[in-house]
Every structure is written in C-alpha cells, then in structure tokens.
Amino acid sequence: MLDVHAIPAFQDNYLWLLHRAGHAVVVDPGDAAPVNAALQTMHLKLAAILVTHHHADHIGGVAQLAEQHAARVYAPAREHYTFAHAAVKEGAQVRLPEIGLDLQVMELPGHTLGHVAYYGANMLFCGDTLFSAGCGRLFEGTPAQMLNSLQRLAALPAETVVYCTHEYTEHNLRFARSLEPDNATLERRQQDVASLRLLGLPSLPSSIGLELAINPFLRCDQPAIQSAAAALATQAPALQAIAPQQHADTVLATFTAIRALRNRY
Ligand SMILES: [Zn+2]
C-alpha cells in the first residue's frame, strides 16, 4: 500500500512523504533535516523529489537531498532552478515506479507564474495553489489566472484527496465563516479542525468534495459569497474599485474581492 505521511516543517509547512515498500518520494522539501529524519526513522530510500514552485520554503532542501540520496528531481519548466532537474510541463507524466505511482502535471499559474500541481491515483499535490478553505496569495499571477487554476482543480473528482502544503485551515475557516455564516458544512469543518488541532494533528489532507462545500475561493458562483463580498468590499475604501457590483464578470470580481479581503483578514 502507498502511504502518505505529513512531515511538519518551519512554522506551518507540511512536506508530504509518499512511500511504499521502503521507497519514498517527497514533495516540496523546504528543509532537508526533517526529511532525512523521517527517512531514517521509517527506513526509507528517497527515489525522487517533486517541486511545485520556486519559493524557498518549498525548495530549500532540494539540492542537499538530491545529492545525498541521488534522487531525481522534477520541477516546473516555466521557473528557474539552480539544481539539476527534469523540467515538467502541462500534461507531462511523472513516473515513479519505485512507489508504483504515475502523476500528471497540471500548470496552475496564480501564486507563482510557473506553479504546477501533481495529480494521479486520486491524489492532488497542489503546493500553494489550493488550501483548505483558502487559496494561495497572488505573488506573480493575476486573479483571472488563479481563478482559472482553481476552477481546474474544482473540476477534479470529488473524492480527490488534496495535500495542501500549509496549516492555514483555522484562519481560513474563520474568514470563510465571515462570508458564509449560515453554511452548516463550514461550521462542522470548523469543529472537526478544532478537535484535530487540539490533538496536534494536521487538518489535512482535504478533498475536492469538501472544498467545494466550504472553500469561498471555489464558491464565487454562490449568491451568498457574491453578496457578502460586495458588501465587505464596498465598506473598505481601498477595495471599492474592485467591489463585485462594479464588474460584469461577477465570479471573477467576487474572487478578486475576497482574495483582497483575505489579505487584510
Ligand atoms: Zn509559495
């Protein structure tokens, strides 16, 4: 059986370690030390490293791990990396025979322009594009690019398990409830996450089905989100120009407004 293990790193990152029969693959190792510790404890041999985007907290350990373990590295073709790697583009298949898994590359611009996700066998490794009840900040891309990227993820099967890379869920859920106080699934998720976090457990992975029900960034077509976004953006002087009622594309305008509102939340 393939197993996926969360390695906590830094303040709130998760480095996802996939393993089967003594072989392992790690996604976005921002730090080599906790990965090496996990490999040692679990008696695993590192076969490959997958990179979703170029931020330091996702690649800081790549060069060291690749060298120490002679591991293959896959990283987005549209970004620049100093370590040796196979550059992957939209639709590319990443073959990981050591753990019996093939993953497909999706290019998802928004958080960064070259950002990719790896999808296959009902699993999605989405880097900083999709979080539980949230989405990544727009450091390089436009709201339209990020919305399009998120809509592609939303179209994946509901049972897809989503391995997000940050523990931002509680803060995201508070923001989501400020937009949708009457969403019962959101309230239940908030209770579930509070229990998990009390026990020191990750709130992740999530699933596409759950995110469709609770994540405001996947729910910009919902009248409740649209009216809440319009009301809040209108109240904030700096955001009045992007208030959804000023724009013809309501879904994009709503997304733009709630992304800006979340930045200040
Ligand atoms: Zn990032």
UniProtKB/TrEMBL annotation:
GO molecular function: hydroxyacylglutathione hydrolase activity; metal ion binding
Binding, Zn(2+) 2: D57, H58, D128, H166
Sequence positions that bind Zn(2+) 1: H53, H55, H111, D128
Cofactor: binding comment: Binds 2 Zn(2+) ions per subunit.
Cofactor: Zn(2+)
CDD domains with a match to the protein in the record: hydroxyacylglutathione_hydrolase_MBL-fold
The EC number(s) this enzyme carries: 3.1.2.6
Catalytic activity: an S-(2-hydroxyacyl)glutathione + H2O = a 2-hydroxy carboxylate + glutathione + H(+)
Classification via Pfam families: HAGH_C, Lactamase_B
Signal peptide: none
SUPFAM superfamilies referenced in this protein's UniProt entry, alphabetically: Metallo-hydrolase/oxidoreductase
Metal-binding among keywords: yes
Domain Metallo-beta-lactamase per the UniProt entry, residue ranges: 12-166
GO-annotated biological processes: methylglyoxal catabolic process to D-lactate via S-lactoyl-glutathione
Alphabetical UniProt keywords: Hydrolase, Metal-binding, Zinc
First-tier enzyme category under EC: hydrolase
Pathway, per record: Secondary metabolite metabolism; methylglyoxal degradation; (R)-lactate from methylglyoxal: step 2/2
Family affiliation: Belongs to the metallo-beta-lactamase superfamily. Glyoxalase II family.
Assembly notes: Monomer.
Biological role stated in the UniProt entry: Thiolesterase that catalyzes the hydrolysis of S-D-lactoyl-glutathione to form glutathione and D-lactic acid.
Protein name from the UniProt record: Hydroxyacylglutathione hydrolase
Species the sequence originates in: Pseudomethylobacillus aquaticus
